[in-house]
Amino acid sequence: MAKRRVANPLAFAVLGSLIERPMHPYEISTMLRVRGKDQSINLNYGSLYSVVAALEKHGLIEAVETVREGNRPERTIYAVTGPGRSEFDDWLAELLGTPVKEFSQLEAGLAYMAGFAPDRVADLLDRRAVAIIEEVRQLEGVHEALRARQFPRLFWVESEFRLHLLRAELGFVRQLAAEIRADELEGIAVWRRGSELAATLGVSLADLLRDPHKYFGEEFGWLSDIPEGGL
What we know:
2 domains
């Protein structure tokens, strides 16, 4: 992955906007929100000006005009430069063609879910599923309205991608919650036993794993192979 002179994804959106035509930052912000791009790129109005300043510093955009409308403060209009256009083209090619590891909050939680009792994890996954279902319904409604208006998919395909991801996540968390409740998740016997002992003895699961033969018996002697800090 190339090292970007301004790596904030908002900078990518600013460059893409200015390629259409010169604009001032407020106009960029308004256009991104009207087009729903703030659902795909974190748009913070305060940080937008910092991003614009950084892009200008690195010669990727340039001020071309200062305008004033009525009693409003002066606004500087920016345009993309040649290097800015090259940066955008290279960045877009990378985003579309090069898969990268994206660290999600759900993955982080799953990695340490054994820190809670199994039934509590199942309840939390069910709560997550409810929230996902609501977001799926909202997106489906938006997409239905866009289709009714015959609005081309080209301009909202990123929202369609988000919907596919949500549906996949929903299926996963539902299945995982069901497997936990039915004691079908591989390793859940150790998890349940460990959670019960941890609650009774007032220690962590990691503490129990330091002497698995004592707390879990010979049947689970393989637990001693788990690296320190593995759970």
